[in-house]
UniProtKB/TrEMBL annotation:
<dbReference type="Pfam" id="PF03631">
    <property type="entry name" value="Virul_fac_BrkB"/>
</dbReference>
<protein>
    <submittedName>
        <fullName>YihY family inner membrane protein</fullName>
    </submittedName>
</protein>
<keyword id="KW-0472">Membrane</keyword>
<dbReference type="InterPro" id="IPR017039">
    <property type="entry name" value="Virul_fac_BrkB"/>
</dbReference>
<keyword id="KW-0812">Transmembrane</keyword>
<feature type="transmembrane region" description="Helical">
    <location>
        <begin position="100"/>
        <end position="124"/>
    </location>
</feature>
<feature type="transmembrane region" description="Helical">
    <location>
        <begin position="38"/>
        <end position="65"/>
    </location>
</feature>
<feature type="transmembrane region" description="Helical">
    <location>
        <begin position="173"/>
        <end position="195"/>
    </location>
</feature>
<feature type="transmembrane region" description="Helical">
    <location>
        <begin position="145"/>
        <end position="167"/>
    </location>
</feature>
<dbReference type="GO" id="GO:0005886">
    <property type="term" value="C:plasma membrane"/>
</dbReference>
<feature type="transmembrane region" description="Helical">
    <location>
        <begin position="207"/>
        <end position="229"/>
    </location>
</feature>
<keyword id="KW-1003">Cell membrane</keyword>
<keyword id="KW-1133">Transmembrane helix</keyword>
<feature type="transmembrane region" description="Helical">
    <location>
        <begin position="241"/>
        <end position="265"/>
    </location>
</feature>
Length: 327
């Protein structure tokens, strides 16, 4: 009895039906790039950047909005709403600080934030199969990382302030609808900037739109479902791990966010290069051949290095059909 017969039947079906073949190709490329490990790296650095960033935000708002408690509360609540896993567990009073705390927070936020942007640059270059010889060097990565940190940080701050101020002037009926719509639109701009700035290569907007929409919708869903995650996962874990359940929950939530970002980026690459259908069994498809060749070229580290792979006749892989560019 062939236990793999249903899987083989599905493989034949998804090769003929794009609605099945495309998402499967995205998942397979995600696996080829080991993007799960890259998402974990982004989550690791993101974890250490959250609290310094919140400290900076709360301290600056305390200076700027002194005497206007309503706006202060609205903006801070908007910021905490971006982290539903921990939003209700943070004591804002404990985060308030003076100028010394502001300086310390800025230094810590920049250090940790650079870790996030450098890890994200590496992830995007892996997703787009950029050879190592074409990637930015040590100084270039951190220089671009600082630009990305300042650009995306300012944009995210603008989103937080705008949503907070608008929501503060609305009643209960208009709060959720208006806040969600505005956040979704601004998140689309944020993800466009992320995909555009984090990749070494120049990627036009027409090649990014699908991933931008997927990332924005996925991020909105993650924020919405964060409360459910707390109630069903973190709450149960608290009886065993105590306070560390919140840490585990936050890391898991950030990891999911990193996965959403990278799955969206993989969808861009698969669509642009027509990397579907991918085969689950032999024979390999044209998209399999193109994907494996691009993955091999990632190992090129010097101008004189050229990595190629060959396929035996037994593999039966076609030699045409998928686009053979990496742009």
């Amino acid at each position: 009895m062939d236990l793999l017969r249903p899987v083989r039947a599905f493989d034949r079906l998804q090769r003929r039906v794009p609605a099945l073949g495309f998402p499967l190709a995205v998942v397979k490329k995600f696996s080829d790039d080991q993007a799960g490990h890259l998402a974990a790296l982004i989550a690791y650095y993101g974890f250490f950047s959250i609290f310094p960033l919140l400290l900076v935000l709360v301290t600056v708002l305390g200076f700027v909005l002194e005497g206007n408690q309503g706006w202060y509360d609205a903006i801070v609540d908007s910021a905490l709403a971006q982290f539903p896993v921990i939003g209700e567990d943070i004591s804002i009073g404990a985060l308030r600080g003076d100028r010394a705390a502001l300086v310390i927070g800025i230094v810590a936020a920049v250090w940790a934030g650079l870790g996030v942007t450098v890890a994200a640059q590496r992830a995007m270059d892996e997703v787009w199969d950029v050879p190592h010889r074409e990637r930015r060097n040590f100084i270039g990565r951190r220089g671009r990382g600082l630009v990305v940190l300042l650009s995306l940080g300012s944009l995210n701050l603008a989103i937080t302030v705008a949503v907070g101020l608008i929501v503060s002037g609305l009643g209960d009926v208009g709060v959720k609808a208006s806040g969600f719509a505005l956040t979704l639109v601004l998140d689309i701009v944020l993800f466009w900037a992320s995909f555009r700035l984090l990749t070494t290569r120049e990627i036009p907007l027409r090649d990014l739109w699908l991933g931008i929409v997927l990332a924005a919708v996925g991020w909105a869903a993650l924020q919405t479902l964060g409360g459910v995650y707390v109630d069903r996962v973190v709450a149960r874990a608290s009886s065993t791990y105590g306070f560390f359940a919140i840490v585990i929950g936050l890391l898991s939530w950030l990891y999911l966010g990193g996965q959403i970002l990278l799955y969206a980026a993989e969808a861009n690459v698969v669509r642009v290069r027509r990397l579907w259908p991918r085969g689950l069994f032999d024979p390999s498809t044209a998209a399999d051949v193109q994907a494996m060749r691009a993955l091999a070229r990632v190992a090129e580290r010097t101008e004189g290095a050229h990595v190629e792979i060959t396929f035996s006749p037994k593999d039966g892989a076609p030699r045409s059909g998928a686009r053979d560019d990496q742009g």
